[in-house]
Amino acid sequence: MTATLSSGPASDGGSALRRFVRWWGGELAALVPGALRRAAGLESPEWLILAQADALRLRRRRGDGLVDLGGLDALPARAVDARIVLQIPAERAFVKTVRLPLAAAENLPEVLAFEMDRQTPFQPDQVHFGYTVLARDPAGKTLRVRLSVVPRAAVAELLGTLRRREITPDAIEVVDADRLIDVPGGGPAATGIGRLNGLLGTLCLLLLIAALASPLAAGYVRIADMERRIADLTPRAEAGLARRGDADRRTEGALRAVAARAAAPAATAVLEEVTRLLPDDTWLAQFNIVAGRVEIEGSTASATALVPLLEGSPLFTAVSFRAPLTTNAVTRREHFQFVIELAPR
Predict the structure, then answer these.
(1) How many secondary structure helices (H) and strands (E) does the chain include?
(2) 42 Cβ partners below 8 Å, 6+ apart?
């Protein structure tokens, strides 16, 4: 989708039609491979708006680098073929690496939203987030994912500032991290173009159904026959799998118990490591080692700053929040509850 920067409503239908033609041309160009688009000069320019602490800076990509253009006044009044990306500095976001079961890859956005209050000090409805899969471990059946989180209030304030200048970003990203996947675009498209887009989308869908209907009908007959054969064999297969599954579960449970006992580090070593890593201004009220995990509770000046310190230890693999953070109104110290996964020896 291309960005549209408008300085006011269209004065006539011709302007709306020209905008639609440019938009439709951009959508068709997006179907062309990237190398051909660049060779033919069809690649849409991308404007980057960096949200600094005291100002919004305009930048553009050039080759593998960035060119600083100054303030937003350098942005053209109309840039119909441009993409606008709002960039949030990493220090204004919460970025961490999490480990998840490999099966989570099939529904990763939903899994990350469900895990949000364990992996971050926020509730899912308080943030926008993005992610990047860093590594897959088929042997260990785990997935390493970088999670980037930005509070919704911060994004809404920046979008409001841009909207007052009639600028609507196409995407929002954390610098050197991830694009946020659940941030809606700006205001709705012009009514006439919106209806025409809907009509074109419906027409394309009908053409696709017509093209697929003929081979699907023949395939359906073959699939129905195969399903009948599978139904005849299913009871015997399920009975055999059930017997094998019972034996496998008993063996796996015994092996897991032995491996867990052998892999768990000594309690004294864990306590010594936690004591070494935590800053002097951090107080612990609770310390437990349960089933390969360390549970700690206490207070500190900044709980989020403790996460990278603990995850940097070779004894630990991941740190999650067992409960939301709370702040003492008098001392301004944060009360935290962490669950720390122990690394196998």
Answers:
(1) 7, 13
(2) 29, 32, 36
Q: Does residue 247 sit in helix, strand or coil?
A: helix
Contact between residue 10 and residue 16 where contact means Cβ atoms under 8 Å apart: yes
The Cα 275–Cα 279 span in angstroms is 8
> What are the boundaries of each domain within the chain?
13-187, 206-262, 267-342
Compute the chain's Rg from CA coordinates.
Answer: 27
Are the C-beta atoms of residues 319 and 337 closer than 8 Å to each other?
A: no
Q: Is 31 exposed, middle or buried (0-12, 13-18, 19+ CB in 10 A)?
A: exposed
Q: What's the CATH number of domain 267-342, 3.40.50.720, 3.40.630.30, 3.40.50.880, 3.30.1360.100?
A: 3.30.1360.100
pTM greater than 0.70 (yes/no):
no
Closest CA to 289 of 303, 270, 315, 311: 270
The DSSP code for 124 is: G
Read off the pLDDT of residues 159-172 as tens digits, 9 standing for 90 and up. Answer: 998 888 888 888 89
CA distance 319 to 340: 5
Q: What is the pLDDT of residues 278-331, one digit of tens each?
A: 999 999 999 998 888 899 999 999 988 999 999 899 999 889 998 898 999 888
DSSP lists the bridge partners of residue 50 as: 57, 87
What does the pLDDT read at residue 42? Answer: 53
- Structural domain 13-187, CATH architecture: 2-Layer Sandwich (3.30)
Mean predicted confidence (pLDDT) in 175-184 = 78
